[in-house]
């Protein structure tokens, strides 16, 4: 892949981005993954499929989401001109719906009647439960017990939407364990079940498919910034857990050499404490959940527990395309701590009247670090990929407020 | 294979054919609940009737395993288990047993981190005969399968109910030692095996391969083991044995007195089921075994 003049051609036919990606799954799942690859390959070039997806993105999810000049924030930070891509305004409150609409239409096309999913913060689970309600499909969402506790509003929303939420008590009881359990379910229910993965990770074709469905974010930004400014942005910033909102924003710009890109991992209580979720900053390549990528692990290859105040970033791995983009140097990967994210959360709420999710608050924390050193004509676009309603209890607890 | 003289797996299946019975394959996780107790169990298994020993390589995220084997991995890791210790356990077993084949079963990441070449060297030196790596399908053969075969380690592939006729040749390519037929669609130790469906699947597999066929993933009782032993070349039991280890350990994972004896007693009952299977009810599935008897 290094021989190509583009960063946008991957993956290869075996699902590899450089050495990353691949299809590391049990034999029981292999035929299903090959079926999915075939079905997606046909759907993505079928005008009827594209038209149907566009319809739901516009009329149901509310796309395009605005590109908003965060004027007061820009003034306060005294530097770059900051834009927010307002994906928190989508139906269900985050970018997750983009991917869910794509995959649910594919599941219908494949005649699957039962949808399973994993969720961390619950944003993906809510989006899955939503599209399952819309299309009248059975829905089972796996969620770690720890996450169920800290994201109670989303758990209730999923149940209202008719989903069965299955608590996962194995391992660290968070997103990675929910994904293990969803894979176990899939192996046991191969005939009628579609696994709707929420991030740009997992076995091929998921990383590429989820990226494609999320790339609507970047495509819209391109049009919107050209209209607003007459040129492309200088810097794009997004938070990164598995990496679906980041790859969705970045991918359409990967070959625009003048556009710098920064992905912000969760540094939790600090990289040096070991309690973080920064797989690229502090992990090493390994194989988990169907793909080779950067993972938090010990020297025996055992996966270690991630930590972040943000349940959506609390995952010890990262999408394989990000691993490759890191190695090629095309995207810069940095991190922000729980405390920095909380500070950004408050600032955004007070200055812009937007309560961001704790996930994009990590991206904003990095914007706060760099914006002041940039000139006033530097165009910076940050993906505000989720809204913070779900995080209100967590933030109250962190601030010592009893609700 | 690199060294035919030391092919314990082929020798063991040839011996079983000569005896006219199926083999009994036991699975326990290496180092569960601790290294010494685990070694005592493994050393006792051949006398309890195990014809072939599968040893689980403990992993933090065993995606194809049910609660029993997940818990066994966690006990082993908590007690200091690692891939290095697993290889040491095989070496210690080999000191007293040069005939029973040992197959390591697990997930790729610990091997990848250990280093593929170094792992193959150390596994051979310890006396490992084969590998079953759940998350390495034929599509990823270049990772470990091909270098392992080249070095003389068997690479045993899983065939499953979702492996259709079109895919089977791909699964059988670069497979050696035996075929492990996963009798259910599901994770270990959950659903129960349907022996009639297995009989049909095994006879279909036989049309495509000369390799012995072991069946596992849903066998819990001596009766189920016997039913499988009538149609397949070996029956694999894991969760039932691992459950005995769980029952024999206290809440913190420490072995209580009698744990080893309890596990071996369970193995003995299952082995008896396998050994007597064809005495009371010879079945149609025996056709290849009986025809091979005289050869």
Jot down its keywords.
heterodimer, A: 403 residues, alpha/beta, Rossmann fold, six-stranded mixed sheet, B: 295 residues, TIM Barrel, 9 strands, globular, disordered N terminus
Instruction: Report strand order across the widest sheet of chain B.
Output: 5-4-3-2-1-9-8-7-6
Summed up, the helix count of chain B is 13
Total strands of chain B: the figure is 9
Q: Rough shape of chain A?
A: globular
Proportion of beta-strand residues of chain A: 15-25%
Highest CATH level, the class of the largest domain in chain A: Alpha Beta
Description:
The complex is a heterodimer of chains A (403) and B (295). Chain A is of the alpha/beta class. Chain A folds into two domains: 16-57 and 96-210, Rossmann fold (3-Layer(aba) Sandwich); 64-93 and 215-398, Rossmann fold, CATH 3.40.50. Chain A has helices spanning 30-43, 47-59, 71-77, 96-109, 123-135, 145-150, 152-160, 175-188, 206-214, 216-229, 244-250, 279-282, 320-328, 338-352, 358-370, 392-398, and strands at residues 16-17, 20-24, 67-69, 81-85, 114-119, 138-144, 164-168, 193-195, 235-239, 260-268, 284-288, 290-295, 332-337, 379-383. In chain A, strands 3-4-14-9-10-13 form a six-stranded mixed β-sheet, sandwiched between helices. Chain A has a four-stranded antiparallel β-sheet with strand order 1-2-12-11. A four-stranded parallel β-sheet of chain A has the order 7-6-5-8, sandwiched between helices. Chain A is globular. By secondary structure, chain B is an alpha/beta fold. The longest helix of chain B is centred in the C-terminal third of the chain and has 22 residues, at 259-280. Residues 1-5 and 284-295 of chain B have low confidence and may be disordered. The chains are: A alpha/beta (403), B alpha/beta (295). Chain A binds chain B through residues 14, 22-32, 170-171, 176-177, 180, 183-184, 187-190, 284, 286-290, 295, 297, 299-304, and chain B through 58-64, 66-67, 70, 77, 82-84, 107-114, 134-140, 157-164, 167, 171, 182, 184-187, 190-191.
């Amino acid at each position: 892949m290094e021989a190509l003049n583009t960063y946008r051609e991957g993956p290869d036919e075996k699902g590899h981005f450089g050495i990353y990606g691949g299809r590391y799954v049990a034999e029981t799942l292999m035929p299903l993954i090959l079926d999915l690859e075939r079905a997606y390959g046909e759907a993505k070039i079928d005008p009827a499929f594209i038209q149907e997806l566009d319809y739901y993105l516009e009329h149901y999810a509310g796309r395009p989401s605005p590109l908003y000049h965060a004027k007061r924030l820009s003034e306060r930070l005294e530097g770059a001109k900051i834009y927010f891509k307002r994906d928190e305004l989508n139906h269900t409150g985050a970018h997750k719906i983009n991917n869910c609409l794509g995959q649910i239409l594919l599941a219908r096309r494949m005649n699957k009647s039962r949808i399973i999913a994993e969720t961390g913060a619950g944003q993906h689970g809510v989006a899955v439960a939503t599209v399952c309600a819309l299309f009248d499909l059975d829905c089972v969402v796996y969620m770690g017990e720890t996450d169920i506790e800290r994201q109670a509003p989303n758990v209730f929303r999923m149940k209202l939407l008719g989903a069965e939420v299955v608590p996962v008590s194995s391992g660290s009881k968070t997103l990675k364990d929910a994904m293990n359990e969803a894979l176990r379910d899939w192996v046991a229910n191969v005939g009628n079940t579609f696994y709707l993965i929420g991030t740009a990770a997992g076995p091929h074709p998921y990383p590429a498919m989820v990226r494609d469905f999320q790339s609507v974010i970047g495509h819209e930004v391109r049009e919107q910034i050209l209209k607003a400014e007459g040129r492309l942005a200088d810097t794009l910033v997004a938070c990164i857990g598995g990496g679906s909102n980041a790859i969705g924003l970045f991918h359409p710009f990967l070959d625009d050499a003048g556009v710098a890109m920064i992905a912000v991992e969760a540094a939790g209580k600090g990289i040096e404490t070991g309690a973080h979720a920064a797989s690229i900053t502090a992990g090493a390549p390994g194989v988990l959940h169907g793909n080779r990528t950067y993972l938090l692990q010990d020297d025996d290859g055992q996966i270690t527990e991630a930590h972040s105040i943000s349940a959506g970033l609390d995952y010890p791995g990262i999408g394989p395309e990000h691993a490759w983009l890191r190695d090629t140097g095309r995207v810069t990967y940095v991190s922000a701590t729980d405390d920095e994210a909380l500070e950004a959360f408050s600032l955004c709420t007070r200055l812009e009247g937007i309560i961001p999710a704790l996930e994009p608050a990590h991206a904003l924390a990095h914007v706060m670090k760099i914006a002041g050193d940039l000139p006033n004509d530097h165009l910076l676009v940050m993906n505000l990929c989720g809204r913070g309603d779900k995080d209100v209890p967590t933030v109250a607890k962190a601030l010592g407020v009893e609700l | 294979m690199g060294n035919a003289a030391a092919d314990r797996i082929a020798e063991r299946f040839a011996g079983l054919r000569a005896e006219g019975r199926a083999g009994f394959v036991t699975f326990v996780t290496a180092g569960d609940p601790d290294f010494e107790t685990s070694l005592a169990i493994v050393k006792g298994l051949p006398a309890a009737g195990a014809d072939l020993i599968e040893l689980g390589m403990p992993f933090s995220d065993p995606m194809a395993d049910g609660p029993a084997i997940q818990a066994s991995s966690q006990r082993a890791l908590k007690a200091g288990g690692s891939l290095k210790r697993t290889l040491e356990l095989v070496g210690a077993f080999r000191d007293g047993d040069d005939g029973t084949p040992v197959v390591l079963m697990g997930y790729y990441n610990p091997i990848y981190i250990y280093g593929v070449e170094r792992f193959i060297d150390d596994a051979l030196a310890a006396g490992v005969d084969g590998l079953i790596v759940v998350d390495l399908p034929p599509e990823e053969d270049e990772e470990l399968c091909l270098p392992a075969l080249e070095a003389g380690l068997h690479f045993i592939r899983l065939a499953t109910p979702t492996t259709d006729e079109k895919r089977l040749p791909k699964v059988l390519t670069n497979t050696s030692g035996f075929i492990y037929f996963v009798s259910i669609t599901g994770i270990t130790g959950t659903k129960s095996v349907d022996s009639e469906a297995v009989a049909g699947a095994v006879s279909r597999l036989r049309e495509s391969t000369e390799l012995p066929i072991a069946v596992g993933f849903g066998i819990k009782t001596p009766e189920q083991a016997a039913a499988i032993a009538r149609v397949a070349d070996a029956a694999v039991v894991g969760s039932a044995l691992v459950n005995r280890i769980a029952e024999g350990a206290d809440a913190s994972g420490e072995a209580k007195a009698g744990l080893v004896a309890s596990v071996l007693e369970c193995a003995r009952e299952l082995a008896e089921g396998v050994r007597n299977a064809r005495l009371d009810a010879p079945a149609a599935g025996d056709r290849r075994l009986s025809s091979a008897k005289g050869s």
